[in-house]
Amino acid sequence: MKLSLDGLLVLDAIARKGSFAGAAEELHRVPSAITYTVQKLEQDLGVQLFDRSGHRARLTAAGEELLKDGRHLLRAAVDLECRVQRVAKGWETELRIAHDGLIPGARLDPLIRDFYREGAGTRLRLSTEVLGGCWDALVSGRADLCIGAPGEPPPEAGYTVRYMGDVDWVFAAAPTHPLTTTTQPIPTAVLRDHRVVVVADSSRSLPPRSSGMPGGPDSLTVSTLQAKLEAQVAGLGVGFLPLHLAAPYLRDERLIALQVEEPRERLRLYCSWRPRDAGKALKWWVAKLEEAGVRAALLGTHSGGEAGSTS
């Protein structure tokens, strides 16, 4: 390796200060040490980095190219040093958080903002899951923390589970849908004659879960709860929706609530993590999720969240 971080540091200082003397002053070195470092770098690379013909040190084309990418290396080195120091102090380099689609990502933004104010430097990686996807992410190691995981946890041991709240459901259809003129409560046999919109379970390893909606021969499967909501507003199908998510659309009559013979029961949501893996970042998030006000904000005004695959 002919390049050194110290050589790049000197090169950067000269370029910014405009002279070898200015770089020596900034780096608290004698000018001869700066000159030696540059000469050694030029000798090792076999190129001239500075044009010394004028009063001011100017980079050659080769020097400009080296400095451009060299500054990326210097920043990466500084970042690496900081991360190593933070890990030594107990902060994770990265924290992976899986949240169910029943909790919109925007509701996590205030928590993320507060976490960044800690200055921990931990990188956050968020994923949105459906139905059993949150549990699958935790069990398979794809996530360190899951928020709003719906339904009962899988039998695997080794993680802590905390109850968050419940989701209430409403069966809804667009105003133009023929079911809105059907006598209510609508029998299950009648529902099977109409297309339902379902969200696919995002599990990769665990057996996929079902929302329990009695489906017929025709269904529309989407990948997110938001896509399901939009499809039902567009009249492409019917199905159960989280009440807190559907409420604005019910108020302005873009959706109509219908009574059905077999209503969907409340769904319990949980947060979960592996305590043996808890560094300072995970502990910070767990402490926040223990606060009733934080849970209420995540679950919405109806004290419910959103679950995975819904129909």
Tell me about this structure.
The chain is of the alpha/beta class. The protein folds into 3 domains: 82 residues, Winged helix-like DNA-binding domain superfamily/Winged helix DNA-binding domain (Arc Repressor Mutant, subunit A, Orthogonal Bundle), CATH 1.10.10.10; 103 residues, D-Maltodextrin-Binding Protein, domain 2, CATH 3.40.190.10; 92 residues, D-Maltodextrin-Binding Protein, domain 2 (3-Layer(aba) Sandwich), CATH 3.40.190. 39% of the residues lie in helices and 19% in strands. The protein contains 11 helices and 12 strands. Strands 4-3-5-12-6 form a 5-stranded mixed beta sheet, with helices on both faces. Strands 10-7-11 form a 3-stranded antiparallel beta sheet. Strand 1 and strand 2 form a beta hairpin. Helix 1 packs across helix 2 and helix 2 crosses helix 3. The longest helix is centred in the N-terminal third of the chain and has 28 residues. The radius of gyration is 29 Å and the shape is elongated. The C terminus is likely disordered.
Care to give the gist of this entry?
It contains eleven helices and twelve strands. It has 311 residues and is an alpha/beta fold.
Computed over alpha carbons, the radius of gyration is: 29 Å
Average predicted confidence as pLDDT: 84
- Extended strand count: 12
CATH top level class name of the largest domain:
Alpha Beta
Q: Please identify which CATH superfamily of the largest domain we are dealing with.
A: Periplasmic binding protein-like II
- Poorly predicted regions are 301-311
Lateral strand order in the biggest sheet: 4-3-5-12-6
The fraction of residues assigned to DSSP E strands is 15-25%
Question: What shape does the CA trace take?
Answer: elongated
Most strands sheet: 5 strands, mixed
Helicity range of the residues? 25-40%
Structural class: alpha/beta
- State the order of secondary-structure elements, H for helix, E for strand: HHHEEHEHEHEEEHEEHEHEEHH
Number of domains: 3
Number of separate helices: 11
